[in-house]
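Bit of a strange request maybe. I'm writing a small parser for structure token strings and I need a real example to test against, not something I typed by hand. Could someone generate the tokens for this chain?
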Amino acid sequence: MSDTSFFPAGMAEPLAQAYRDAFGQDAPGRVLGVVSPGRTEIAGNHTDHEGGEVIAGAVDRYVCGLFAPRDDRRIRLASEGYGMVELDAADDEPRAGERAATAALVRGLAAGFHARGYGCDGGGFDAVVRSEVPAGSGLSSSAAFELLVAQALNHLWAGGMLDALELARMAQEAEHAYFGKPCGLMDQASVALGGIAHMDFRDPEAPTVERLGFDFAACGYAICLVAVGADHAANTDDYAAVPAEMNAVARRFGATRLCEVDEARVLHDLPQIRAELGDRAALRALHYFREDRLVQGRAEALTTGDMATFLELTRRSGASSAMYLQNVSAGSVASQPAMVALAVAEELLGDREAVRIHGGGFGGTIQAFVRLEEAEAFCRSMDKTLGGEAAAAYAIDGKGARAQWL
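Reply from user aminoacidic:
Good idea to test on real output. This should exercise your parser:
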């Protein structure tokens, strides 16, 4: 590896050692380096899969990989903490036994390239992957991994010809059809694009993307994310129930997503919706409409630099997620780590800043917008109260998932 500056500080040598450990030799002279960031959802809690709007930003925690081309069709990928994945690059049939496993994502992404006319004639690869994006933390480690593999295949098989949003769509397809998680496109698009973006998913095939040049630090604020001590990956069924119940309301009106339904019709038929689908489905539909408006308001606030309005709307968004969307706690009422973390953060922040559930919910992380001069003290107080090193301030990554021959 001749150029180690491509990787984040401290990542190049551990990757080189991981390659030696996995394959018994140094990485060859021609090797592809890939870096893929995590993401933070800044606005839009469970709106993307309903064709709504979101604001998201890539963050400075990364999944990194070394990919060495092979002359045959064999794929071998060693991912730290997940073992070795081995498969035939030309075999893209879904496997029931691979659901919710790393192999499903690799196979699904290979299938996406095949479907677009990019075969594996160039051969498979040997790869090692290391991550500093905590799994199950709400920073979308899965999307970061998906875009890492997607960018690798883009350069290995397609000459780097596919754009960021196309790679994001391929990653979403793999997660749906192979991994078995009905995710929206926000995570993958944010990781692929980098920076802060306001996205509208009304047209799922061609979402509109508006880059926001806002700088939180320049306005005196840090984005702090707090791991609540629970892996939301354990709540896949709870997560899947959110879009399922929203879609059930949409289908009642002959639509597939709530963006196709007039909110006034939902309110008019609310008694029947509650009787047919239950109160939680009705509340989740009402959250969608409320949250979509709050995204639009926060996008305008960031565009005009109105931090006070952004914080107020963020607090209202957090309340809607907790009360109406109900994605803060799941399972036993005796175990509510995210709600505890929110309560502690609100006590520490008072009315000066804002905090909300982050990402899919059900564990993972909470997100706080904290004054720069108070961010370190806030993080250490959250650490002390929750135990361990739970909180950190994050910066926005402006590049997104990228690859380079080293």
